[in-house]
Design a protein that fits this description.
carbohydrate metabolism, single chain, Glyco_hydro_9_Asp/Glu_AS, 11% strand, cellulase activity, 14 helices, 630 residues, alpha+beta
Length: 630
């Protein structure tokens, strides 16, 4: 998600502001067990009880920032000390009894613009003995405890994937599969909402004229049930589903067995739930715009929080097809066809046929865009716009996946003719749902083919990874993220995870440990080695995000509602948050990038959860698991 997904959640925001039941940043809750609750010091409480970090360098104690989950024995190990001191200071690694295991001196860094803090770094990578409950002590302060263990991330791969199960639409969620998250099926045509089994298109008498500058509707009702709820709302968006499905399938494709056998793997079963929905979004033959794909299905207007899917009172609306959505289906259906072929021939054939049809339809309708938000008329009253007026990267991605699956010359020629093929598709701030050229590039590099110049494609991924490592070397908290201008984007944690996928892909291509180590160092930032001393993954670490913006997981507002599930990643710091209309972000005006975040359910610009951020988290977790088992 980026700023182009800005939502005007007036009712939801109002409910959050009057609730007065928020939990403090870092408190733990029963739904996601962890260490005892700890609350940062030196922070200001918001109207809902959430915490806006103080910008003082000593804000979030302890001042020694570490990966609160742990480090792999044979991986890099770093920490960051927040201090005004300019000279080196001694540090020591201790076990639970206080025994010193190793020691050394810090490396002064000085003022870090991304955090607004003066810091020094600690490198204890030479110590590799496993241990639990370890701490780094420096400048009179001890870090949160952590482990050095091959099992440190043992459950993360499964937890990050299970997030998608509890986001499923159109089926009851089993409490046996996801304890504490069982609920009734949502949007199945049962009161109070009309559901997704028979959804009308926008009518000529409502928003279509304002939205598209021309009247548009379609006849009949369409069954678009199933799929995943995108984020904190109940909308379902093809372009965000596309990148999420692609990254999950990429995780499977890089690690799949050479000779698949047995039942459909859990990951592919989960992906199929979304792919089946995306196929339903494709306009059927004989209808106007046949082969194109509807952009989204969502509520007619915004709803408040908390709200279970089965209780959503809003009518559902099916939006006009878009070229971007159509190419997303073309890409992921082609990718899915080659992965499902080993398990389900019929599904693979259906996916490939849908992909070919979608690609041809997009070629015939290359400029059908989802409109950008217009505050003057608010043409997206109940959903995010996900607008994208440059689909050259989507054409490239779709052609790449079709070529890799079929080997057809026409798709190969489209890949080679695309300007995106030789362009820089790896920006400093990371790729996202609207800039998907990197997905095609990485698959062209990884999946065996007879593509002319494939070595150059692989080199472009390696060059991008080298650039990310160079940027990482400037960051004293270890994140693979140094965006232009130092401004953290909406969903910065998702951007960091996407950059980490590039590093992991470079390692797969080259076997060079520096790429693996760069990915592992960046993991530290997400799990607590950051300005806020906070793990952004629910249930992981001593202090973690747990009040993410969601109608389904709204414990902050209703004690009977769960926290977000273990393994949910928060969007993270957003330098533009104060200007978005997010009521919780207004006090963040002028914040240093890393502290532009608040763990409050009302902060939809910094603290949402969404499928396209959890997908790269799963990719990264799967990569880390491979390093342990190798």
């Amino acid at each position: 998600m980026t700023a182009r997904r800005i939502r005007h959640e007036r009712q939801a925001g109002a409910l959050a502001l009057v609730a007065g039941t928020a939990l403090l940043l870092g408190c733990t809750g029963p739904a996601v067990p962890s260490a005892p609750a700890q609350t940062p010091t030196g922070s200001a409480v918001t109207p809902t009880g959430g915490v806006v970090p103080d910008l003082d360098p000593q804000a979030a104690a302890p001042r020694v920032r570490v990966n609160q989950v742990g480090y792999l024995p044979q991986g890099p190990k770093g920490a960051t000390l927040v201090t005004e001191a300019t000279g080196p200071t001694r540090w020591r690694l201790t076990d639970g009894t206080g025994t010193v295991l190793t020691s050394g001196e810090t490396t002064p860094h000085g003022l870090d613009p991304s955090s607004g803090l003066s810091v020094q770094t600690i490198d204890f990578g030479s110590y590799s003995a496993p241990g639990a409950g370890l701490t780094i002590v420096a400048d009179g302060e001890a870090s949160y405890p952590f482990d050095i263990a091959t099992s440190a991330y043992g459950t993360l791969t499964a937890d990050a994937l299970r997030f998608f199960y509890v986001q499923r639409s159109g089926m009851a969620i089993s409490d046996d599969v996801a304890p504490g998250y069982g609920r009734a099926a949502g949007h199945l045509g049962v009161a109070p909402n009309q559901g997704d089994v028979a959804v009308p298109c926008q009518g000529l008498d409502d928003d279509s004229q304002r939205l598209y500058d021309e009247p548009w509707t379609c006849d009949g009702l369409t069954d678009v049930s199933g799929g995943w709820y995108d984020a904190g709302d109940h909308g379902k968006y093809v372009v965000n589903g596309g990148i999420a499905v692609a990254q999950l399938m990429a995780a499977f494709e890089r690690a799949r067995p050479a000779e698949p056998a047995g039942p459909l793997p859990e990951l592919l079963a989960e992906v199929r739930w979304e792919l089946d929905w995306m196929l339903k979004m494709q306009v059927q033959p004989g209808r106007p715009m046949a082969g194109m794909v509807h952009h989204k299905v969502a509520d007619a207007d915004w709803t408040g929080m908390p709200l279970a899917p089965a209780d959503d009172p809003q009518p559902r609306v099916l939006y006009r097809p878009s070229t971007a959505a159509t190419l997303n289906l073309a890409a992921v259906a082609a990718q899915g066809a080659r992965l499902f072929a080993a398990y389900d021939d019929d599904l693979a054939a259906r996916l490939l046929a849908a992909s070919r049809t979608a690609y041809a339809a997009a070629q015939a309708n290359p400029e059908v865009y989802a409109p950008a938000p217009n505050p003057a008329v608010d043409p997206n009253p109940g959903s995010g716009p996900y607008d994208d007026a440059d689909v050259s990267d989507e054409f490239y991605w779709a052609a790449a996946e079709l070529y890799l699956t079929t080997g057809d010359r026409d798709y190969r020629d489209d890949v080679l003719a695309s300007a995106v093929h030789t362009a820089d598709v790896f920006p400093a701030g990371g790729f996202n749902w609207a800039t998907v050229g990197a997905l095609g590039r990485m698959d062209l590099a990884m999946v065996p083919s007879a593509l002319p110049g494939r070595t150059d494609v692989q080199d472009s991924v390696l060059d991008a990874a080298e650039g990310y490592l160079a940027a990482q070397a400037t960051q004293p908290f270890g994140q693979v993220y140094a965006p232009d201008g130092g401004q953290y984007a909406w969903g910065s944690n998702g951007s960091i995870l996407n950059n980490m996928q590039v590093l992991g892909t470079a390692y797969d291509l080259s076997g060079a440990d520096r790429f693996r180590d760069g990915l592992l160092r960046s993991l530290d930032y997400l799990f607590g080695r950051n300005a806020l001393n906070l793990s952004y993954v629910t249930g992981y670490g001593q202090v973690f995000s747990q009040n993410q913006h969601s109608r389904m997981y709204a414990h902050q507002l209703d004690a009977t509602s769960p926290h977000p599930p273990r393994g949910s990643v928060a969007g993270g710091p957003n330098s533009t948050a104060a200007g978005t209309g997010d009521p919780l972000a207004a006090p963040l005006a002028g914040c240093a990038a890393q502290v532009c975040y608040v763990d409050d359910i009302g902060s939809w610009s910094t603290n949402e959860i969404t499928i396209n951020w959890n997908a790269p988290l799963h990719w990264v977790a799967s990569f880390v698991a491979d390093q342990v088992s190798a």
